Amino acid sequence: MRILNAIIGMLQPFGLMPKRVDADSITKKAKKRTGLTDLGDGMHRVGMEALTAAVNSSPVTNFGKFSSTGFGVDALSNRLMMIDYVKKHPEVADIKIERPVFIVGFPRTGTTLLQNLLHLSEDRRALEFWELARPVPVSDNPEKDIAKRQRITKMRLAIANFVVPEMKFIHEVRHNSLEECWSLFIPQFTVPNWETTSRWPQYGKFINQHNMTPAYEEYKKYLQVMVHRVPDKKLILKCPDHMWHLDALLNVFPDACIVWTHRDPSRSIPSYCSLASLNWRLLYGEFEPRELGPYIEDRFIKGIQRGLAVRDRVGEERFLDVNFKTLLNQPVEAVNKITSHFGLTPVSEEKMDAYLNRDRPDNRGKHTYKAEHYGVDTNKVKERYKDYIKRFNISLN
User: Fold this and answer.
1) Which residues, at least 6 apart from 368, have a Cβ–Cβ distance to it below 8 Å?
2) Buried-most residue among 4, 59, 105, 112 (CB within 10 A)?
3) How many CB atoms lie within 10 A of CB 23?
4) Over pLDDT 70: what percentage of the chain?
5) What is the tens place of the pLDDT at every residue in 96-126?
6) What is the overall mean pLDDT for the chain?
7) Which among 304, 326, 212, 320 is positioned nearest to 258, based on CA atoms?
8) Greater confidence, 336 or 171?
9) By the 8 A CB rule, do 302 and 79 touch?
10) Residues 111, 105: contact at Cβ < 8 Å?
């Protein structure tokens, strides 16, 4: 990585690599890449300016500037393509996203397992990574379209795995794995987890004060585009970020079924620190890992407070809680409880058993981490989160 940063630094004086992240430059490149110019109502610009300000005011490495610029170009390209697709297919706007299931637990609380089990339903599906990374069709031929979008995603994943080989031990991402839907907020530049995964507190302040309803309305448009060619199944969506903005979510999806997973925060926080540290390292090179734990601990408690405030206001019937240990020890029962509570089509127990007992040759190693490495005092975490732990009867350790 040091060599890569040095090479990028040598190319910067010649204009071949960015010295800073610039919104106008990103916009120009996205328009050139797609051949499109209509960016819609311009609401994305507010988030874009907040993000570029956060990046440029932090000690991001040359690679961090380069990757952030590329990320921005991809985001605006998706936005340009989505707007163009809806113009060509105006019927997309009339597609209903009916009773979507949202899994909103914190990272490392069993959300991936739960999403994969619910995905086995006959009338529901989760979204694969290639769909989320490239949400807009690029060809009128469905087979060619899927093949091209998957090929691009595989190429990007190969590069990411080369740069961050440890990722596969923490959370392996494949082109067809079921993933979090936060990437659909990227074209609006309103992604809550960027505050944590990138250490941009000023961006976090912006996103927490920002009216997220327009962002969720645009998020819905991407879902409509994705459902347009696969209309026969309802959606299962997963992302911790939703917890911070349940009010906006329910404004746009009033019939949403919200599943909230819970785990001992003294275990989930250091586990997530291990994951977030990979991006901190990419962006900043060297950093003090003991700063990461308290930073995430503070953000997560605020997420709980925001989520519970909405939950207490709208009522319990929209929610169902799943304890991490219950999910691990009784996964079939946990899924059956969800489908029964919300009146969803039951998931085949035979399919769930087959999934749970499948061979997993892709397990190349074990995810190991130590709480103290990230400045996490597990006893203090339990004390700080005691009200949350008590309310949801969360099993400790």
Assistant:
1) none
2) 105
3) 17
4) 93
5) 999 999 999 999 999 999 999 999 999 999 9
6) 92
7) 320
8) 336
9) no
10) yes
Which residues are within 8 A (CB) of 55 and not within 5 positions of it... i.e. 6 or more apart? 20, 21, 64, 65, 68, 200
What mean pLDDT is predicted for residues 26-41?
A: 97
- pLDDT tens digits, 232-258: 899 999 999 999 999 999 999 999 999
For 316-350, how does the pLDDT look when each residue is reduced to its tens digit (9 = 90+)?
999 999 999 999 999 999 999 999 999 999 999 99
The domain segmentation of the chain, as residue ranges, is 1-88, 100-127+178-391
71 touches 206 (CB < 8 A): no
Distance set, CA 106 to CA 67, 111, 241, 264, 326 (Å): 26, 8, 8, 11, 16
Dihedral sign for Cα atoms in the order 352, 357, 362, 363: positive
Fold of 100-127+178-391: Rossmann fold (3.40.50)
Q: Phi, psi (5° rounding) for residue 207?
A: -65, -35
Phi-psi region of 230 (alpha: psi -120 to 50; beta: other; left: phi over 0): beta
The answer to whether the predicted template modeling score (pTM) of the entire model surpasses 0.85 is yes
Q: Residue for token digits 């009916």? A: 98
pLDDT at 265 > cutoff 70: yes
Q: How confident is the model at residue 2, as a pLDDT? A: 59
Contact 351, 226 (CB under 8 A): no
User: Does the structure show a pLDDT above 80 at 46?
Assistant: yes
Distance CA 157, CA 154 (A): 5
CA-to-CA dists, residue 53 to 22, 103, 203, 215, 223, angstroms: 9, 31, 8, 20, 29
CB atoms within 10 A of CB 358: 8
360 vs 10, residue with greater confidence: 360
Tell me how long the chain is. 397
